[in-house]
Prior knowledge:
Beta Polymerase, domain 2, Rossmann fold, single chain, 4-stranded mixed beta sheet, 2 domains, binds adenosine-5'-diphosphate, 51% helix, elongated
Amino acid sequence: MLRIGLTGGMGAGKSTVARVLVEQGAVLVDSDAIAREVVAPGTPGLAALVEAFGDGILADDGSLDRPKLAAIAFSDDAQRAKLNAITHPLVGARTAELIAAAPANAIVVQDIPLLVENGLAPLMQLVLVVSADVETRLKRLIEHRGVDEADARARIAAQATDEQRHAVADVWLDNNGAPEVVEEQVRQLWTDRLVPFERNLREGVRPPRRNRLVLADPEWPAQARRIIARLHVACGASALRIDHIGSTAVPGLPAKNIIDIQVTVADMDTAESLSAALAAAGFPLDASVTHDSPKPTPGDPSGADYSRWRKRLHVSADPGRPANIHVRVQDSPGQRYALDMRDWLRADESARNQYLALKSEAEASTGQDPDTYAAVKEPWFDAVYPVVAEWAAAQRA
Length: 397
Ligand code: ADP
């Protein structure tokens, strides 16, 4: 099962995108519909609202009169909190029930207008944002839905900004054009990304690796931040820190388009205990990797002690955003080296050039095979280990 969050400003095209996803086979969980359902006539939810706010919130036919409720509940923070304390648990429970009832191989789409405002993005395995310019949205809302312009403007102004939505968007769907344009984009997204993502997740396999060096993408740090936010939710207090490491964390450095993230934990038992949560967040375990390549250290001059270099590797199941999640023990040599190497490369231009030359040579001589590529790169990592260690010690001194 894959869980996707769909959001966007009022009138941006969420319902339009949701409809295409459902046509492709998605299971839609519509948060607005659930919010209405849990307070429909005859429900315990409506009874609780009447008990809290009086039967002045009911229309003549016994259904909830939303404007009347809003007039009371939005009058002050205490009333608003009282309303939320009644409705939020009911919406949460019904949402969980609908998701649990979906088939094991479902692609579940949660349509949540206030996903950004409520900080829900890190709970989703992927976030789609549909967007259109405010004036375009207003025109569509007035023409198709007959909304009042002043009211719509006020509501749009109270919602998240495009910039806030951008920060959580794994996929940004531009719906300024004709409906067919965004519809086609959604169908492609379904086939190229969502279906394989769900399958990789369910089967616990990694997508095919990308092995070509590409120019640095200025979006990499933002993409890493989104992954890190998900990992914090998945790991909770077990993660002592989570960092963007590797070449994509070094501004301007060409790299393979794979985001490396390090989750620092207290010990290997904790690393192992995180397996299920990381898999559920979209990052199944790659059990074939058990440690980094050991390097000679003062405590192990021959560099033969593998036990000090143990790690767990989880890989993103999303073919649209390859990522490796390295789970390492705090203050183990591998954990320190990942951070120090990144900082050294960030600080030292000649080091960056040396590393890039090596990577280019490795790619030219070994082509796209990841194992032979690593065989060329690893000796350099071994060779510069003492240099980086010395540099890092000097920084800390
Ligand atoms: P939301 O669910 O985000 O509020 P909708 O999907 O309901 O937005 O879209 C708002 C209105 O604009 C609807 O009436 C919809 O049919 C219409 N609409 C959506 N996308 C387009 C488009 N690309 N061109 C023209 N009208 C559109």
